[in-house]
Write a sequence for this structure.
């Protein structure tokens, strides 16, 4: 089943030097941009991460330091990518927890305030895990009855993710072919920051989702314990998280 779209949807995948959003870097990005009129635009680019690729990462995706030595760095294509993603909803496989936060972090490092508001986020992995509890290769076999060749190649994983998402719509009648529905079903709409360090409670109040102040209101803590804000700003948190807590800190002190 083809996706019903009200505006463009980008299905994308990243290969990286590791799994730390704060310290690792993108070495390959691939996306398929689906247009409401049915057109598909494909883009794949390897990148020089400006740091060594660990052997354990190469063992997964097969990309070596020599493969990317002459490639552009992320900053070289950042504005082009931001323009390509402008006005689009976003989808991927484990994209809510990793790929999209990693991409936004790279944008922030390039000085681009990438807008995450008013977008819908579709995560085929979350739909899959809610329905079947499997991995990407198993998902591809289960839904599409195909073996995933060149797994951990960004382009192969991206195309497999799109096919899986389309097959999920065919398989589960309870899934609506509607981006708003899929966003609510597969997304984490209560997250305030992409890493999920801050979330909204049942009253739509921003609360901490970690540490000693877990489930406590951020605004209250910043008023009575302003040092906690400084601790977070000095700590190993993503730039996106620090940007969000700074806005809340300013708001708390303005009242």
């Amino acid at each position: 089943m083809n996706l019903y779209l009200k505006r463009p949807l980008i299905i994308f995948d990243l290969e990286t030097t590791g799994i730390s959003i704060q310290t690792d870097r993108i070495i390959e990005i691939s996306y398929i941009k689906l247009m409401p009129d049915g057109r598909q635009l494909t883009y794949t680019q390897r990148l020089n991460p400006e740091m060594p690729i660990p052997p354990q990462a190469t063992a997964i995706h097969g990309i070596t330091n020599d493969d990317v030595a002459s490639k552009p760095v992320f900053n070289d294509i950042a504005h082009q990518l931001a323009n390509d993603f402008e006005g689009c909803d976003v989808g991927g496989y484990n994209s809510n927890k990793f790929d999209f936060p990693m991409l936004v972090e790279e944008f922030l490092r390039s000085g681009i305030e990438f807008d995450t508001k008013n977008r819908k986020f579709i995560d085929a992995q979350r739909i899959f895990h809610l329905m079947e509890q499997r991995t990407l290769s198993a998902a591809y076999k289960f839904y599409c009855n195909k073996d995933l060749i060149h797994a951990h190649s960004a382009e192969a994983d991206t195309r497999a993710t799109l096919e899986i998402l389309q097959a999920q719509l065919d398989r589960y009648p309870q899934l609506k072919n509607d981006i708003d529905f899929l966003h609510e079903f597969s997304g984490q709409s209560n997250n305030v920051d992409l890493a999920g360090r801050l979330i909204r409670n049942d009253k739509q109040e921003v609360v901490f989702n970690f540490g000693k102040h877990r489930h406590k209101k951020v605004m209250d803590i910043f008023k009575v314990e302003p040092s906690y804000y400084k601790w977070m700003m000095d700590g190993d948190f993503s730039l996106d998280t620090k940007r969000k807590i700074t806005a809340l800190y300013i708001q708390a002190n303005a009242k």
User: Anything to note?
Assistant: The chain has two domains: 9-186, 198-254. The chain has a mean pLDDT of 93. The longest helix spans residues 154-171. DSSP finds eleven helices and seven strands in the chain.
